[in-house]
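Late entry, written up from scratch paper. The run itself happened at the end of the previous shift, but nothing got recorded in the book at the time, so transcribing now.
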Amino acid sequence: MYQKIITKIIELGDTLPAISGHTSDIGKSKQWLTQKDIEIETELTNLIKTFPGNHSVYAEELHDTYIEKENVWIIDPISNTVNFIHGVPFYSVALSHLYKGEIKFAVIYDPSRKELFTAEKGKGAFLNNKKINVSDNQKNLLILINSPRGTYKEKALKTIGALTESENTIRILGSLGTHYAYVACGRVDVTISFNKDTFPEFAGKLLVEEAGGKFTDLKGGALNTQTMGIIASNSVVYDQVKKLIDSIV
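Output as recorded:
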């Protein structure tokens, strides 16, 4: 089952780089939607329907109502469609599988770099089938953050200011799926997300935790579909980052 999902995600993801920067936003009720978002979500949903058992899909475009079933599949067909539309290579396909409410499997695929991040509960996290771990860095941190608008903009700007006071380096890549994957493989030490939904977050949580890291909401609580605000980090700096966030948000 999981290998079929991986094969399909790679197949679909590999169609994206050639048209990135040469595709249009077709969104009407929402901004930043492409035909590829719809195609990827539809094809993965159709594959999931062939699996035995009781399944539902919770996904960003066509299945955005969470329906509790024994098996729930959470899909972000293109994590950061804005980057994809503009030809910026930081976008990804993210998927996770929940069985009886517990995250059992996760995939984040970056087709621009042909990097496949996978995790299975209790079996570790992997990049292109090689085991990965979070960093053990404790100072001069490399931190990823997103650039939210609206409600979280002021909080995000305050957070960036506080983090840079301690000689940390801040980067914004865009795709939250990629952000979480980079924490899992140790490329960056922390990511702080002011997210508007949780479609890539469930995959990110399993990847980071199976790689030895921490993944919570901004208050240290567990992830759920209503969570708005994430800290994902290596385990040694999590407490200091959360303490700083507590003083701001």
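Residues 35-48 form the longest helix (14 residues).
(Scratch paper discarded after transcription.)
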